[in-house]
Amino acid sequence: MKIIICLDDKNGMLFAARRQSRDSALCERVIGLSKGSRLYMNEYSAKLFSDYSDQIYVDSDFLSKAPETVSCFVENTDISPFIYQIKNVIIYRWNRVYPSDVKLDTQSLLKNKTPQCVTDFVGSSHNKITEEIYIL
Amino acid sequence: MKIRIGIIALFLCVLMMLSACGISFTNDIGGQNALFIGITDTKVDALGDVPEFDDEPYVIINDNQPDFTESDMVTKSYERYSQLDSLGRCGVTMACIGIDIMPTEERGSIGQVKPTGWHTVKYDNVDGKYLYNRCHLIGYQLTGENANVKNLITGTRYLNLEGMLPFENLIADYVKETENHVIYRVTPIFEGDNLLASGVQMEAKSVEDNGEGICFNVYAYNAQPDIVIDYATGESQLAEKSNFFDNDSTDTVEYILNTSSKKFHSSDCGAVANIKEQNKQTSDKTRDELLKQGYEPCKQCNP
């Protein structure tokens, strides 16, 4: 399973049960990366991908139902129960600080691994988004 | 009333064992997460219930629900600033943030403005050295207001960077991406005739999606860890350091634990009075033992 997550500079994910930020260029890039198979996500995330409805699979229990080879876009779902199934992690960093009350413990997830590939790109509303690809 | 929602240590340990990993989320994320760990933000019902500063940059007010009326929720961009009061202090600022009033140029100089309580003072333990910044009530990135005296207060570096900027980023990037509007109100809170604001209340709600994108109500402290500030004048000094480690009795020192925030304090720390009884514990464990248990030293008393 490949997990895709967006984080701010403090590894924050959410504040007040809402995503910290969004960027349509990021969504386009994520869809491009998962070409050939549907991108798995829940209803909350599906609103970000409304232009790609035929390329996503939406289910509240998407992590349980995801086949091994697909990518899962995670915003507000705990991935802890699926730790042993996660083989790849893609982190998109906003390179900004937002308020957060839900953070990801990246140290425990990535186990001090360094990214295989780091790429910066310009978002539609963010000057620089950083893509980090980890293989666990 | 100050409300802290936490998980007791024993329950935490059980959860950690069950999780089989350390991936952790804090706070409630719609009831979907099975693992809760760490600190939740301090929450109060109303502005009058805000506790003393305890090394957290902000507290949540009224469960993040701002106090806007229906008539406030408009989709035409504007910005409003209060007249300075008789002491020269800023008042409430309010705006409907839209892409059309966001700045297109870099910010200019604001050094000529001297808000009430202003002192040019430097400390080695402050990021950038200078204790005080000229803080925009409505951030420059939102409305492009440069040296508007009705929009600038004397604020600590900590207020500027940790208390206000993250929320301004939240709004700015949302508006830029969606081109929706956000109603935003910033109220500086001055006690009595103080020249320095104690903090600012920030309220925001996105209009077109009725708060689905942005909705918060917070109070950010105009404070700086390890610095004592006289809010009447803006004068300041370094906080006295604890001398617990100047002798050999460190292993017998008693610490006061906040089991909710996971901070430990010296027994004479002023912040101890703000800890709810159910979250307060006395510990004779050593500093190192507490650090290993995940506790952090209070930045105010630095035990």
Overview of the molecule:
The complex is a heterodimer of chains A (136) and B (303). Chain A has 136 residues and is of the alpha/beta class. Chain A has a single domain, classed as Dihydrofolate Reductase, subunit A (3-Layer(aba) Sandwich). Helices cover 17% and strands 30% of the residues of chain A. Chain A is built from four helices and ten strands. In chain A, the strands form three sheets. A five-stranded mixed beta sheet of chain A has the order 6-1-7-10-9, with no helix packed on it. Chain B is α+β, with helices and mostly antiparallel strands and 303 residues long. Helices cover 14% and strands 22% of the residues of chain B. Chain B has four helices and 15 strands. Chain B has helices at residues 9-19, 140-143, 157-178, 287-292, and strands at 43-44, 58-61, 78-81, 93-97, 132-136, 152-156, 182-189, 199-206, 215-221, 227-229, 236-238, 255-258, 263-266, 280-283, 296-297. Chain B has a seven-stranded mixed beta sheet with strand order 1-2-9-8-7-4-3, with helices on one face. In chain B, strands 14-12-13-15 form a four-stranded mixed beta sheet. Chain B is globular and about 60 Å long. Chain A binds chain B through residues 13-18, 20-24, 44, 76-81, 83-84, 94, 96-99, 101-105, 107-109, 124-126, and chain B through 19-30, 32-35, 38, 40-41, 58, 60, 64, 165-167, 169-170, 173-174, 176-178, 212-216, 218.
Lay out the secondary structure.
The complex is a heterodimer of chains A (136) and B (303).
Chain A lengths: L1 E6 L4 E4 L2 E2 L4 H10 L5 E3 L1 H4 L9 E3 L3 H4 L5 E3 L14 E6 L8 E2 L2 H5 L6 E5 L7 E7 L1
Chain B lengths: L8 H11 L23 E2 L13 E4 L16 E4 L11 E5 L34 E5 L3 H4 L8 E5 H22 L3 E8 L9 E8 L8 E7 L5 E3 L6 E3 L16 E4 L4 E4 L13 E4 L3 H6 L3 E2 L6
Parallel strand pairs in B: 1-2, 13-15
Antiparallel strand pairs in B: 2-9, 3-4, 4-7, 5-6, 7-8, 8-9, 10-11, 12-13, 12-14
